[in-house]
Amino acid sequence: MLTFDDGLKEAVMINKIMDTPDKHKAKAIFFVNGYRVKEHPKLFKLIRDRGQPIGNHTWDHIVLKNKPEAEVKKQIETVQKIVKDITGQARSFSGLLTV
Ligand SMILES: [Zn+2]
User: Fold this and answer.
1) Do 44 and 73 form a contact (C-beta atoms < 8 A)?
2) Tens digit of pLDDT for each residue in 25-56?
3) Which of 26, 64, 77, 92 has its Cβ near the most Cβ atoms within 10 Å?
4) Cα angle value 56/10/22 (rounded, 5°)
């Protein structure tokens, strides 16, 4: 499985990246950071509309290893929430990537 992380950044780049798995009828998980989803909600929808899986890559892209449980939970759940706010759906992510 191919994965891309630390998105979302710009439409041109995302479209180019998605053209490759599309060409080969493959899937690539796009791991998104919450603060970037907030900045670029249309790019989130673009990935979803093109049918690629989306992963939760925490809100701030911080190292969670030594963070208290409440902070870890917040980092994950705030991404779930903004996605629900944008799409109207409680989306189940294809994965969680924490670094
Ligand atoms: Zn990352």
Assistant:
1) no
2) 999 999 999 999 999 999 999 999 998 899 99
3) 64
4) 70
pLDDT of residue 75: 96
Spatial distance between the Cα atoms of 20 and 13, rounded to a whole number of angstroms: 12
Domains and CATH numbers, the chain: 2-87 (3.20.20.370)
Distance 84 CA to ligand 1 centre (A): 22
Distance 58 CA to ligand 1 centre (A): 9
CB atoms within 10 A of CB 96: 12
Which pTM does this prediction carry? 0.87
Per-chain mean pLDDT for the chain: 89
Nearest by Cα to 83 from 70, 51, 97, 47:
47
Calpha distance 75→97 (Å, rounded): 11
Between the CA of 21 and the centroid of ligand 1 the distance, in Å, is 20
Residue 66's closest CA among 23, 99, 33?
A: 99
